[in-house]
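User: Modeling request: complex.
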Amino acid sequence: MSQPRTIVDKIWDAHCVRPESSEAPAVLYVDLHLVHEVTSPQAFAELRARGLNVRRPDRTLVTLDHSTPTLPPRADGSLPFANAATAEQVAALERHCAEFGLTLHGFGSGTRGVVHVMGPELGATQPGMTIVCGDSHTATHGAFGALAFGIGTTEVGHVLATQCLLQRRPKTMAVTVEGRLNAGVSAKDLILHIIGVLGVDGGTGHVIEYRGEAIRALTMEQRMTLCNMSIEAGARAGLVAPDATTLAWLRGRPHVPQGASFEQAATHWLSFASDQDAAFDREVVIDARSVTPTISWGTNPGQVVAVDGALPDAGDAATRKALDYMKFSAGASMLGEKVDVVFIGSCTNGRLSDLRDAAEVLRGRQIASHVRMLVVPGSDQVKQQAEAEGLDRVFSDAGAEWRQPGCSMCIAMNGDQVGPGQLCVSTSNRNFEGRQGPGARTVLASPATAAASALAGRIADPRAVAPRSERAA
Amino acid sequence: MSAPQASTIDPILQVRSRVALLAQENIDTDQIIPARFLTTTERAGLGRHCFADWRYDAQGHEREDFALNGAEARGAGILLAGRNFGCGSSREHAPWALLDYGIRVVISTQIADIFRNNALKNGLLPIVVDEQAWQQISEQVGNEISVDLEAQHIVLGSDAVIPFAVEAFARQCLMRGVDQLGYLLQLDAQISRFENKSEAA
Ligand code: SF4
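Assistant: Request completed. Predicted assembly structure:
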């Protein structure tokens, strides 16, 4: 019998064009390359300078998300870009797609979206694949049992030209979540809790496999939220082994094989799951029952606290600096802090189920008059489905702005910004200083916590507004 | 506009320069180069935005309280940084900005994976040292030290020598200015064989 292998080992071994040696890294084949406008222009320029083509346009999926406006087109049909630079960045990718023969999921395609929302909903993301993108949240696709990770622009050029990357095999870490999550606790709360336990550099050099009863019980959208933030613990990637939940989600999607070939593919996909006795370089166990609604208080995603908990004491310099930037007092409660902006969206929490969670809290209610709330669907398809269910009206009636799909306030490149000193409760993934605009203060939270905070105009516990038990279908 | 040039990196063998210090831990790529400067389609000229929100106040004036604005840090080519430098996004604009700003070497007790990878591809040398060595180097802030990539060690003014290790392939590429894309392109036939085999399966 061969040695038991982890899912990472199996995917790795199946994609080595050339194995690694002491002198050289492995040449790893890439099944799917996702491309967006911010990290690609210099890579296309490199190809052009060398007279190279894109090796596999059929394995390259391109969209526009970071720099794109979330306001609808003007009366004359033009898009309200924030400035000339963002407009040019979008135009450049449109030109590159035409020049290199790539299909662009752009404006008017009906399939445009935040790159990590779009790939899975098209069924392009499949178990056992290697997936890369010039974007650190590529680990989102790990929810399907794919080895998916972020790369830089030079490597984007390598993949465009050769469909390969030079890589050393990563270490593996098992994060086992035992027991079931309590009612009212979301995947976002769980991953914030996990990052708090591991620390922002706890996963460095590793790929995390999330496993255990609580993980098996998560839906695909929840698994995507979880894997999405693996990078915030420093991990190279995060993934969940494929199972019946994965197959059910994939069946019938445009890029997925149909009929008998689906069954064949399914058997192949399931074979990637880690073997029973596979060994990991590191193992961490989390008790699901100990997780409560969790938010960030500081300026990195490892600085987290239960929403109804107390801020830390001003112990070390880093804590003091973060408290200072956030204008919070050591030892105080976060509940009741005045909120200026609420953002629902991003590749972490911009999917249909996230919008439903937020809408359930808001339905028939009004957000506080001093709060500006933006709801930004993760993709054209999410937007369309949400509107078909009337969620857009729930948000508008509550006083929130319903926008066009894109990254929006997650990275604040497109003009959607939080003002200096303003406090934003955000369903995105990063609370770094200035991430949502210079001087902006960010509290990361689940869609339910964000919506509850919009109602109160202050940081609020979602369990106090609309208990999950009454909302669950 | 001039014709685009395929990018090559200058070989690095040794860097002798002054050391500047940013002791803070977890310096993320949003601090190294804030997202609003990522709208560029070029890689040149990002140095002026490097650490923009720490370097300048709201009026665009240099802040006196930022370490790299101090006289002894100006022109320093070696940056000693707190643990987990470069965490966050995959933006290669971070090493581009640092290089354009004049930094050739970053030393820390831990450097985030994607940043380290991006740095190595651009001729910015990321070096990981242990806590004790970090302390030793921190005593040299403002002084010149030598980083020798060939010997894989740092020589401090006092002649103290601190060894470090860089992944073998990346080191060879840096020392010889090897172009990694060129290396991959030579494997074309092998990549085709792999594709034929795996797509037939
Ligand atoms: S939503 Fe945010 S994290 Fe996700 S791809 Fe866009 S900018 Fe990056």
